[in-house]
Amino acid sequence: MKEHVILIGFMGAGKTTIGKRLSKKLGVSLLDTDRLIEEEAQITISRIFETKGEEAFRQAETRMLKTLAKYEDKAVISVGGGLPMREENRKILKEMGTVVYLRVRPSTVIKRLKGDTTRPLLQGEDAQKKVRTLLNDREKLYQEAAHLTVDVDGKTVGQITTEIEGSLIQ
Ligand code: S3P
Predict the structure, then answer these.
(1) Residue nearest to atom 15 of ligand 1 (CA)
(2) In the chain, which residues have pLDDT < 70?
(3) What is the 66 CA–ligand 1 centroid distance (Å)?
(4) What spacing in Å lies between the alpha carbon of 158 and ligand 1's midpoint?
(5) Is the dihedral of CA 117, 119, 120, 126 positive or negative?
(6) CA angle at residue 13 from 73 to 151, to 5 degrees?
(7) Per-residue buried b or exposed e for 105-143, using 16+ beta carbons within 10 Å of the residue's own CB
(8) Which residue in 63, 82, 74 sits closest to 26, CA to CA?
(9) pLDDT one-digit tens code per residue, 100-127
(10) Ligand 1 centre from 119 Cα, in Å?
(11) Which residue's CA is the nearest one to ligand 1's atom 3?
(12) pTM
């Protein structure tokens, strides 16, 4: 069995930040599906949504996940917030290693992503309502996808990382 650590969760939950710290502490690489998709396409995710549409992006995510599933060296893998919504992806994730759900409150996401222009799903009118609705719709599937859940609100990066490490050892 592969032993990757996979971080899932809503936009703004801290997947990339925690991924950086955790991968450093574990002495392994950090792989990030969003960044890899952007590198491959040579354009930003916003541009992919604009020019090819969300469905094309979702297909790119599944393709990238299947490529990462073949990666042999242990790694921390951070995946885009919407990736675990596909049943096919949830199945692959679970087989790749320990899936950690970074659970965040809508109010924290709203605070963190105020003024952000890089998340196409949260642009336009009433971003706050979009966060609440989308997070509420997704919560059950995040839980379903994960082996363990870590609440991130009010905790430091160090605390969250230590909590994850502790759960991995048990
Ligand atoms: C998305 C989350 C984003 C990115 C894209 C769609 C989503 O990644 O993949 O904008 O559907 O939640 P982050 O979770 O890293 O922001």
Answers:
(1) 80
(2) 1-2, 170
(3) 18
(4) 23
(5) negative
(6) 95
(7) bbebbbeebeeeeebbebeeeebeebbbebbeebeebbe
(8) 74
(9) 999 999 999 999 999 999 999 999 999 9
(10) 6
(11) 80
(12) 0.97
